[in-house]
Write a structure and sequence with these properties.
Elements: E1 5-10, E2 13-18, H1 28-42, E3 49-54, H2 74-89, E4 95-98, E5 102-104, H3 106-112, E6 116-119, E7 124-126, H4 129-132, H5 140-148, H6 150-159, E8 162-164, H7 165-171, E9 176-177, H8 183-195, H9 199-209, H10 213-231, H11 235-246
Parallel strand pairs: 2-3, 3-4, 4-6, 5-7, 6-9
Antiparallel strand pairs: 1-2, 7-8
Helix pairs in contact: 1-2, 2-10, 3-5, 5-6, 5-10
Amino acid sequence: MSDQLSVEINDFVAVMEIHGAPNNYFNKSLVSEIAERGFELDNDPNCRAIVLCSEGKHFCAGANFGDDSMEGDRTQTSSELYRAAVRIFEIKTPMIAAVQGSAVGGGLGLACATDFRVASPASRFVANFSLLGFHQGFGLSVSLPEIIGKQKSMDMLYSGRRVGGEEAFAIGLADRLVEDGKQREEAIAWAKQIASAAPLAITSIRETLRDGLAERIRVVLERELDEQSWLWKTKDSQEGVAANLARRTAVFTGE
């Protein structure tokens, strides 16, 4: 347990809460801890389902580009983060994400690593990588099409636009749509329903349906990192990040 993540188990459901309000930016340490806690819960007979949620305004606003830790060897930092990300996909216990506010960039990747997502009309899902001038990461090249299909994934990734909760529900990115503020409550109720089923059967069913997913994520993460590594060196990427920090529209030149 740490200041950035807490876990509480009741009625065979573990509520794993991120503590980084208001934006709950992710980093290698947080992603690693989510994976570690998930593996511990896999071996806890008192846990049969996990709800991943966050305190504050947003589920996860992605990477904090204003953080000094983003400077330096970004490729090495991302490589370590992505190795931790793969491990989240290796967690064996069913996971439900309660998405309040925004799930942006890698935050969207984190939400897509879970089995299900509960949203409200006010929730927003954003794959804004193209507007930052670089390639998507966190395995989204596999996980997003797995959930909503290739065409809708291309729309989100090419445009970088915000997808609201109602549209997310319509395209299958959100599995349940509830009144804003009720996402966690609904996710816990759903997790309890899953936890009431035969646990060995749930594990078996999940392994069949997700067969090979973690390995496909592992492979595509290498491709994603390769693409990110050269794109980060471009003027467009520098402009995209600068514009994001300044809250202005980027002007890209193709350089």
